[in-house]
Write a structure and sequence with these properties.
Structural class: mainly beta
Distance between the termini: 70 Å
Number of strands: 12
Radius of gyration: 21 Å
């Protein structure tokens, strides 16, 4: 009888729709540049990229005390002196609490290929998208309403210097 009662225990998942957090793009980390030539300079860039837009793919939910959301990000890549088409864009998604303190940071990369114009055979502006799943503790839902999501590129000192 004991095993029967354990097997009948409730495993229900509770879900609640909530307002999605605000999403911002980091001002100093909104653009990205790359080059195959070292040291990198403004004159030898292969491509530049920019975080352009975002959208939540579905409702933001509380599922078993965790806020979950699927965030889709749009990146625009512009070719310069490109020899090969692969693009690799490292970026981060940071979660800030109501006091603008980082409570979580997740690192990602998006890989893709630049598109080519069929007539000219030159690389052209290319859109890349990446969807990431955000997860936040929902122990205090009212506090989490003031959370913010910050998205930016991971840049070294030299790239920051060139961009700014």
């Amino acid at each position: 009888t004991f095993f029967f009662l354990i097997g009948c225990a409730s495993n229900s998942i509770t879900t609640t729709n909530i307002a999605c957090p605000n999403v911002f793009f980091a001002t100093e980390h909104k653009k990205y540049i790359d080059s195959n030539t070292k040291p990198i300079s403004i004159d030898n860039l292969n491509y530049s990229a920019e975080i352009n837009n975002y959208a939540f793919n579905s409702d933001c939910l509380i599922i078993n005390d965790m806020i979950q959301a699927e965030l889709s990000l749009l990146f625009i890549v512009n070719p310069y002196q490109v020899e090969v088409s692969p693009v690799n864009l490292p970026f981060y998604v940071a979660i800030l609490n109501e006091m603008n303190e980082v409570v979580d940071m997740q690192y990602y990369q998006i890989e893709g290929n630049l598109k080519k114009d069929l007539k000219t055979k030159k690389y052209i502006e290319t859109e890349l998208t990446k969807t990431v799943t955000l997860q936040l503790s929902s122990l205090d839902y009212q506090v989490n309403l003031r959370n913010a999501v910050i998205v930016g590129f991971m840049l070294d000192k030299k790239k920051l210097e060139i961009l700014n």
